[in-house]
Amino acid sequence: MAAASHSRSTHEGAPAGAPDRLAATLALDEPVSRVRLVSPARAKALEKLGIRTVRDLVTHFPRRYVDLSAVRTVADARIGESCTIRGTVHEIKLKRLRPNLPLVELALVDGTGTLMVTCFRQPWLMDQVKAGDAVAVAGKVEFDYGFKRMTNPYLEKVGEGQAAAMIIPVHPATEKLSPAWMRRLAENALAAVRGLYDPLPLALREKYRLMSRGSALACIHFPQAMAEVAEARRRLAYEELLVLELFLMQEGARRSAGRKPVAHVTDGAHQAALAAALPFALTGEQEQARRDLMAVMGAPRTANHMILGDVGTGKTAVAAFALAAAADTGGQALLMAPTEVLATQHGRSLGPLLEAAGVTYEVLTGSTPAAERAAVLERVAAGTVDVLIGTHALLEDDVAPRSLTLVVIDEQQRFGVDQRARLLAKGEAPDAVYLTATPIPRTLALALFGSLTLSYLREKPHAGAARTTHVVTKQDRGRAYDAAREALSRGEQVYVVCPLIGKDTAERDAKAAADRDEEGAAAHPVVSIESEADLAGDDVAAATREAAMLQSSTFVDTEVALLHGGMAAAEKKQVMERFRAGEIGVLVATTVIEVGVDVPNATVMIIEDADRFGLSQLHQLRGRVGRGEKPAEVFLVSASKQEAALQRLAAMETTDDGFELASFDLSLRREGDILGNRQHGASGLKLVNVVRDGRIIEAAHGDAAALLEEDPALEAPEHRALAREVRLLAARSDVPSGG
Prior knowledge:
The chain is 38% helix and 18% strand. Strands 2, 3, 4, 5, 6, 7, 8 and 9 form an eight-stranded mixed beta sheet that branches. A seven-stranded parallel beta sheet has the order 13-14-12-15-16-11-17, with helices on both faces. The chain has a six-stranded parallel beta sheet with strand order 18-23-22-19-21-20, sandwiched between helices. The chain is built from 25 helices and 23 strands.
């Protein structure tokens, strides 16, 4: 983290007569109605922006800034340039292209020419701006119909004596609260907390030369120069991260507080037998991950370890050594997978290896017959089963291992915090190992899972067949279906993923964009599918019609089957077994959930409306083809004309590295929209960009660990304000939990 200059005096050591610092600090968490000029009606409008407290308002940061000191004339403004132009409104008109699409058009003159300004869906401007008003507009200059133009620029009325050198913050606003009102309320909120305590210990502020919290809040909302914004953001981003890391680490420590952890045997006979039974040698990365895993499991404290591996990198093989270590220690292990198909697949792939290593195992799912289930649970309770593999069925109260020392959770992000905790509660203080194929860059993993130790797998043990990805338009989608028919003619199989079946596209897009302001919706691609939760509510009848249409018109010579989330477990299992056996040629899937199976003969995947998926979801989907020796093709079909959306999809054509794709997605979109975090409140990080702020994340993670090593409960006087921030974060419902 680079050094910073203090652009404003801090509120530390305020003289007599200054605002009461404790009262100012406590004011942060009072209702927003405490702020001057926040009437009940305005409080209601603020609530629609997620602003309920004074803290919410002072952390409702500007989305951009307009520097009215950098002004160009109409004549000097270049086409394609973003700039500010000041002038007088010559004429203003309200037009309606459609009943629900009003636009306001202004003719702005400045003595050197005329700028046409078009503002869509802002009819209220007719009440705020009149001919003869002096205004400033900031946006991109275009040329159309003989005039220089700006479309939906930032527009500000300029007073007669207004200073020329001025930076105007643009806060996310609503129709009921204009950006000008948001500025006024932000200023009043800052006044209400002026003089507040700084939660960062002085030693850390000096270490990185950080502004005080009060100065940073003032500078980020109302900067005198743009350099202040960068320093304020750096300070506040570091604070966000430090508080989050402390929360995650304390939560991780709390899981085993007062309990006796197990130091697993890491070089026992079962592990040696497993290594001898493996039909392949571990890659260098797998071997390193195995060593990492054994180091944390062999330590006399509870392990919380995550293995992050791209599709096909062999995470399960590494996890097998953890299962063997539990058996070597005389303990038992539970391995939970999110679906019955995946749990059964684990039994099929891991079972022979465990048997060869002398490790007993059973598989338990929701469809296990009652008599068989009772017998399995009896053996688990007696301790004669070393490893129990299963689904959510493992969470039932009657699943009671005699000596649980290890829990392995596959695709852990598909389980809630409470579900993971229930599984871990079946033992005294079992070690926890989490597996995920979601490609999470290290910086994001630290921000989301600060209490976990991490191992990464990027190298695939087997190169596999060549797999190519193509982005095609809706009009050109026949190319994808031609490739599918060719594959079928060779005896191969096809996936067709139809994510929007049964739910109106506009409805799903609206859901995805619900928390975005107008500019945010334009600046970020609309991605409405980040996890399986976004696929809930599909219309089974519509899905059935789609499969029937493909059967009758496109794939007339092969059987087309349908898979969707509303099917019974036994029915889904039967479809997947028939697809794996080659009896079904085309599998139409309306959800992501059940596609995670290994069918080497499937060589073509067509993903309709691909732009609605996050890149990580697309990457995991395409990992289902090309798993054998035959070359595979993936077709991403999109009707989008949005440049950013097409740019995202184009990245799928150029790289097969899931971590690289995730970093690219993060650079284009907000991290809160990725990896299902939209459902979890985006981890509460308002200012952090995990690509840009990697060094700050690493620093905050290290500093949090050092603070807790010295003062585990943050009880020292200099840590009390920081401890309060951590407690407040813990009380919120929208923060993630690492384990």
